[in-house]
Amino acid sequence: METIVFDVGETITRDDRYWASWADWLDVPRHTLSALVGAVVARGLDNAEALRLVRPGIDVAAEYQARDAAGRGEDLDESDLYDDVRPALTALRRLGVRVVIAGNQTPRAGQLLRSLDLPADLIVTSGEWGVAKPQPAFFDRVIEVAQTVPEATLYVGDHPANDVFPAKAAGLRTAHLRRGPWGYLWADDPEVVAQADWRIDSLAQLTGIVGAWRA
């Protein structure tokens, strides 16, 4: 195991403030949008469909720009990180593992993540690459930045359709993280069980996986 690549939302960061800010922008109660996110997750749809249920026909990219112009754009700080992120990434780098963070986020999110000075060798987003998960081209880029062969690269994420399945199809090792709506809902799905090389409840478990792999 030479490189571990991490998804962002509900793997590295909590999505609480993300969805709360959207609810405030769309002028709906936060619990309403949260419930709609859960509903689209249960149906296997993209989470952006929750926004379209609130405002049919919404142009999400245009709304991002409008939020930025109004001074209500994306924000990330230390409080958005899960507690196990810094310790786990630090421990992995001490083991000599290349640590990459690559998920479906905007260029702005990439800038914010890099400003947190995380113990990672590279932080990049789909918005910066111009290609998003689950497209195979995204995982082609992952393989490029991993700087090792696919079978020595592990992709970690909570979303089966965006993370586990396409990463596996690209030849990467995969770890499904039981965290966030997608992680909990699909944790015991037979296809996830069959395709994920590992199923974990915390990023802290990755050091043990690396150690066992190398033994």
Automatic annotation (TrEMBL):
It comes from the Bacteria. Pfam families: Hydrolase. Keywords: Hydrolase. InterPro entries: HAD-like_sf (IPR036412), HAD-SF_hydro_IA (IPR006439), HAD_sf (IPR023214), S-2-haloacid_dehalogenase (IPR051540). The keyword Hydrolase applies. SUPFAM superfamilies: HAD-like (SSF56784). GO terms for molecular function: hydrolase activity. NCBIfam families: HAD-SF-IA-v1. This is Hydrolase.
